[in-house]
Amino acid sequence: MIPEPRQVAVDGKTVGVYEYGDPSGQPVMVFHGVPACGAGFGFADEPARERGLRLIAPDRPGVGLSTPSDGWTVGSYPSMVTALADALDIDRFAVWGYSGGGPFAVACAAAGGERVTRTAVSAGMGQVGVWAEDDDFEKTDRQMLVMSRKRPALARTMMAVGARLARMSPKSATKSFAKQVSESDRAVIDTMGTPAEVMALFTQAFLRGARGVIDDYRAIGQPWGVDLSAIRAPMRVFQGDDDPMVPPRHSEELANRVQGAELVMWPGEGHLATITHVAEILDWLAAT
To answer: How many domains, in total, are found in the chain?
Structure first.
């Protein structure tokens, strides 16, 4: 089943939001990867419900149903998250960033002060220009990171075509995706439902077109503008050591640079190990 987003009015703009788990539970802001949207966390719905967690997965500006915003960055995104929390009458919350959502979880931890209770990062992309480089990533991400800065119009066209093809033939798109990941990840894909459900986290990102997805790449593809020394809440970094999409070195560097951060490495597992180990991640987030 493909989840449906709702639209939340925040400071005169719209934020597309997906929710999972217990609607009255302990809140966790969950940040999607790229090219993706908040539709990709269905695997965490039941485990979150069992642990009394309310997962709130907003689409970033221009992604899905969220209103575009000019020139936003990783460092400026936490103010949007706290404004969303205010609109939802949420005071304190944990954050969890997966893959391309990792930088945004880190940024919220640094800027959120006492409002952020815990931070989980799983398979998080490193800070490009600091301890990560464009060439660290697989082909599509590498191309889009560069083109989002140098040729954004062409990047938008290419992404829009890819999304259209994925909607027309999700089975072919899923097979193409499977070629980019590890053997252990391919086994996980087989548990994720129909091809249309697997591709929803990608295709739903383009409800307003491709601009937001490319802006997302642009934001991630430059230094974050985040003071890592400002992070006070507990942080745990999760990573598979056989991840062809985000090198394990990125997680190791993040854990080394944030005081008190803990690193959990999953031997022999890849980029989708977050799905396999979702209970472990949620157990840690719930222990506040």
So the answer is: 1
